[in-house]
Amino acid sequence: MLALTAMAAAAGEIPFRIGNLLYSDDFTASLSHWTAELEKPGVVQAANGRLTIDVPAGCTVWFRPELSGAVLIEYEATMVKAGGPNDRVSDLNAFWMAAGDVLAAHRSGKFAEYNPLRTYYVGQGGNGNTTTRFRRYIGDAELRPLLPEHDLHGPEVLLKPNVSQKVQLVAAGHTIQYYRDGVRIFDFHDPEPYTHGHFAFRTTYSHIEIRQFRVYRLLVS
């Protein structure tokens, strides 16, 4: 079996093993497994082993296959800062286990239009790279609950320009987690977990490169 990361495994933080690879995308040429919602025209393309998201406003890129059961989602992400018009280093965000007819909705890419989802969400380096937050969306058009312990501001959880980081999202029954480079940032016990749904990259006004997208089955002990 695969280890989540050597660092996290050594710390004894992970209550499961990693099983079969369910999905992978190395972004060589096609975006056939993805669909993008953009608030303003921008670049969302796959080529040369990376997914490039270079956008001046809100953008969500949904993974078309629906996920179910205990899963680990992982990918490598780099916030590009190279003088481009969108190179802001902010908002490496994600939805996961977003339930319902997610792909059939006609959204403009504006962030408020995602409020009605029932999903997990992390906004890493949001608000101009000043906050990292976890939310459990409850399907309300206005309310997006935020617990104080899920509203972080320390430099250790914010973004760095031009540095690749490994992101790992866990949905395993009641256990919902978010890791960056093997370090657990959020660990949430959900008494009523979302057990199936879609994953999406989410950002706004930024330039991101994504590599080595993987989804694994988790073996909960």
Walk me through the structure.
- It is globular, with a radius of gyration of 16 Å.
- Strand 12 and strand 13 form a beta hairpin.
- Helices cover 5% and strands 53% of the residues.
- Strands 1, 2, 3, 4, 5, 6, 7, 8, 9, 10, 11, 12, 13 and 14 form a 14-stranded antiparallel sheet that branches.
- It has a single domain (6-220), classed as Exo-inulinase, domain 1 (Jelly Rolls, Sandwich).
- The longest helix is centred in the N-terminal third of the chain and has 6 residues, at 6-11.
- The two termini are 13 Å apart.
- It has helices at 6-11, 126-129, and strands at residues 16-25, 34-38, 43-47, 50-63, 67-68, 71-79, 92-98, 118-125, 131-138, 151-152, 164-172, 175-180, 183-189, 196-220.
- With 221 residues, the protein is mainly beta.
Q: What keyword list fits this structure?
A:
221 residues; mainly beta; Jelly Rolls; 53% strand; 14-stranded antiparallel sheet
Portion in strands: over 45%
Span from first to last CA? Answer: 13 Å
What count of helical segments does DSSP give?
2
Secondary structure class reads mainly beta
* CATH superfamily (homologous) name: Exo-inulinase, domain 1
Corresponding CATH architecture: Sandwich
Helix % is: under 10%
Total number of beta strands: 14
Number of domains: 1
State the CATH topology. Answer: Jelly Rolls
Largest sheet: 14 strands, antiparallel
What's the level 1 CATH class? Answer: Mainly Beta
Rough shape? Answer: globular
List the uncertain runs.
Answer: 1-12
Spell out the helices and strands N to C.
Answer: HEEEEEEEEHEEEEEE
